[in-house]
Amino acid sequence: MSGTANIARHLPIMAERQPGALAVAQQLRRGKSFTYRSYTARDLDRESNRLARGLQRIGIGPGVRTVLMVTPGLDFFALTFALFKAGAIPVMVDPGMGIRNLKKCLAEAEPLAFVGITKAHVARVLFGWARATNRINVTVGPRLLWGGHSLRGVRHADDAPVMAHVGPDDTAAILFTSGSTGVPKGAVYTHGNFEAQVRSLREDYGIAPGERDLATFPLFALFGPALGMASIVPAMDASKPITADPRALLAAAHDQKTTNLFASPALLDKLGRYGAAQGAKLPGVGRVISAGAPAEPESLERFAKMLDAGVQILPSYGATEALPVATIGHRELIDETAALTASGAGVCIGRPVREVILEVIRIDDNPIPQWTADLAVSAGEIGEIVVKGPHVTRTYFNRTNATALAKIADPADGGVWHRMGDLGYFDTHGRLWFCGRKAHRVQTAGGDLYTEPVERVFNTHPAVRRTALVGIGKAGAQTPVLCVELEAGAEAGRWTRIERELRTLGSTNDNTKRIEKFLLHPKFPVDVRHNAKIFREKLALWAAERVS
């Protein structure tokens, strides 16, 4: 291991320090009860050694891009660390992005190997995923007519250490963005990027060896072994976390004595509602990290009642290309910023984490080849959020144009600024506020309108579940339209009255009073994965049909 920057090197270190400590526990549903399969740190290290040696034997070695489509559990963890140890480059895609996007992403990644469960291989064969480049197949589960290798056949008898020597700038993995707000792109992660993320989780969030994480987001869970933190994998569909059964999550938390929870705001909201209805609690959980979308203050307040007194919920801001970027404690968010959010200030997303530099630059839809100081705007002015730091990715794989649009070279230090595609501003306290996606701003003849400052005002109406601001027409002359989804139980027959109340609610704000059309929508189309974002493009088309 000496001299290598391989992110997997942390695993044998932890296995030596705490060999019998829990590394991964996988929850299995047995009727109305649950059982668990588990690996200790030593088990996981040795199993990943066996698999790494076996993968190298069949040609999956240094630099080989390898699609990994395995459901979270013991095999997922062992295979991921085996690929790192073998020097291969895992290609991670979210199955929730859809068949068409999956085919395009896997073709772009040009993988030589495909490791997946039976269902993934069936789809690979039917839809021709990576047909032009894929040559090596490993099946986790029953192997049908496609040949290749079974996981059992790959597994080597020798569990002696395996660790490919790589540098910090060598590619470690390709992680595809969700595609919920644009075409999915493969962010190229180096071993140095991963190392910086581990460092941030340890230093910024205080995660220490011996902790246990309820792992509802697989990619975050992979950092557990590097931190000496066990990953508890609940019985749920990780590609659709919003469909998770709260009873399974709570059982896993109780049975395995979890101390940490990483979850999307949508999942926290579901758990909080369940807790309020059933009187359920999460004793012993000392930290909750939320990411993927802005969190609602009411949802955080409700979920906090499930936790022990004084436990912080930490809404965190970031993206696949750069995570974490900023964070804020839920008490500060609620006590100091919630009222401002409700009046149209946007959503406070906190202060930058260590080693990260944040700036807000003027809004521009074109590439910006080189960083100059005059790009930055003044405090209080809305612009695009950009970030630079050691865990910020520098490029997309096989996406030259996307890289040019998203990255700004900094000649001062050779670094790269990543354009988040989000709009926001800094307040006088140095906190960053989020105002929505750049692509979702509504460009009217009277100036731009931004989603979060507008929607959060109308979302305060008790009958409203959520709203979505969309623009109809050409940029620069768009008509702003507010789509409205009501709370469950709210009577659609009262829409005329509710619309009148919404207009009154928006009349005192310079931005919200500019909304011309209000449309009632039965149920917004949303991305039900980790971020639960609204598909505004679909809503805009729907609204255009009704306004024209």
Task: Name a few traits of the molecule.
548 residues; single chain; globular; 14-stranded mixed beta sheet; seven-stranded mixed beta sheet; 17 helices; alpha/beta
Give the arrangement of secondary structure elements.
Elements: H1 10-17, E1 22-30, E2 33-40, H2 41-57, E3 65-69, H3 74-86, E4 89-92, H4 99-109, E5 113-117, H5 118-127, E6 136-140, E7 149-150, H6 151-154, E8 171-176, E9 186-190, H7 191-204, E10 212-215, H8 218-221, H9 224-227, E11 230-233, H10 246-255, E12 260-263, H11 265-278, E13 287-290, H12 297-304, E14 312-319, E15 322-327, H13 330-342, E16 347-352, E17 357-361, E18 383-388, H14 400-406, E19 407-410, E20 415-426, E21 432-437, E22 442-444, E23 447-449, H15 451-458, E24 464-472, E25 479-486, H16 495-506, E26 517-520, H17 536-547
Helix pairs in contact: 1-2, 2-3, 11-12, 12-13
Summarize the structure.
The chain is of the alpha/beta class and 548 residues long.
